Amino acid sequence: MKIILLGYMASGKSTIGREVSKKLNTNFIDLDDYISNREKMTISEIFKNKGEIYFRIKENKYLKEILDSEEDFILSLGGGTPCYAGNMDLIKASTATSIYIKASIKTLVDRLKNEKNTRPLVSELNDDKLSEYVAKHLFERRFFYEQADTTINSDNLTSKEVVTEIKKLLN
């Protein structure tokens, strides 16, 4: 069983992925953590020292590596992963089930306000700019996100409820 969780940053992919992996007794992989471990730098350091293009090249390389593995996994992608380097085509061509964890602009902005110090792309934005930034990105990325096999709207659900929805999908 291979499950890929995708969606915008702060949609809950990593939290949900960890919970699903425990319930299904399956390996959990956070793509950003995987990249950090392989590159021996945090994502923030990669962006600062090597730039976004370098990061996107490595992101594609490591995504392929994970998708090609024989192991079962729950994989949480970075928010931009499906949108670059043909990554969504790789995901669709794989045997994995892809699930878009969808959240509204308001939900995402509320979560991101509390996580700015760990989010290099939004760390310098004030609240008004943050809302505008998220809205623009969601508009641009929706095309990719909506290619997932399934969508779960997480706005009014707890992470445990989303996990239950995912388990129902897999039965």
TrEMBL record:
<dbReference type="InterPro" id="IPR031322">
    <property type="entry name" value="Shikimate/glucono_kinase"/>
</dbReference>
<keyword id="KW-0963">Cytoplasm</keyword>
<keyword id="KW-0418">Kinase</keyword>
<dbReference type="InterPro" id="IPR000623">
    <property type="entry name" value="Shikimate_kinase/TSH1"/>
</dbReference>
<feature type="binding site">
    <location>
        <position position="56"/>
    </location>
    <ligand>
        <name>substrate</name>
    </ligand>
</feature>
<feature type="binding site">
    <location>
        <position position="14"/>
    </location>
    <ligand>
        <name>Mg(2+)</name>
    </ligand>
</feature>
<feature type="binding site">
    <location>
        <position position="119"/>
    </location>
    <ligand>
        <name>ATP</name>
    </ligand>
</feature>
<dbReference type="Pfam" id="PF01202">
    <property type="entry name" value="SKI"/>
</dbReference>
<keyword id="KW-0547">Nucleotide-binding</keyword>
<keyword id="KW-0067">ATP-binding</keyword>
<feature type="binding site">
    <location>
        <position position="79"/>
    </location>
    <ligand>
        <name>substrate</name>
    </ligand>
</feature>
<comment type="function">
    <text>Catalyzes the specific phosphorylation of the 3-hydroxyl group of shikimic acid using ATP as a cosubstrate.</text>
</comment>
<comment type="subunit">
    <text>Monomer.</text>
</comment>
<comment type="pathway">
    <text>Metabolic intermediate biosynthesis; chorismate biosynthesis; chorismate from D-erythrose 4-phosphate and phosphoenolpyruvate: step 5/7.</text>
</comment>
<feature type="binding site">
    <location>
        <begin position="10"/>
        <end position="15"/>
    </location>
    <ligand>
        <name>ATP</name>
    </ligand>
</feature>
<comment type="similarity">
    <text>Belongs to the shikimate kinase family.</text>
</comment>
<feature type="binding site">
    <location>
        <position position="32"/>
    </location>
    <ligand>
        <name>substrate</name>
    </ligand>
</feature>
<keyword id="KW-0808">Transferase</keyword>
<protein>
    <recommendedName>
        <fullName>Shikimate kinase</fullName>
        <ecNumber>2.7.1.71</ecNumber>
    </recommendedName>
</protein>
<dbReference type="InterPro" id="IPR027417">
    <property type="entry name" value="P-loop_NTPase"/>
</dbReference>
<keyword id="KW-0479">Metal-binding</keyword>
<keyword id="KW-0460">Magnesium</keyword>
<dbReference type="GO" id="GO:0016301">
    <property type="term" value="F:kinase activity"/>
</dbReference>
<keyword id="KW-0057">Aromatic amino acid biosynthesis</keyword>
<feature type="binding site">
    <location>
        <position position="141"/>
    </location>
    <ligand>
        <name>substrate</name>
    </ligand>
</feature>
<keyword id="KW-0028">Amino-acid biosynthesis</keyword>
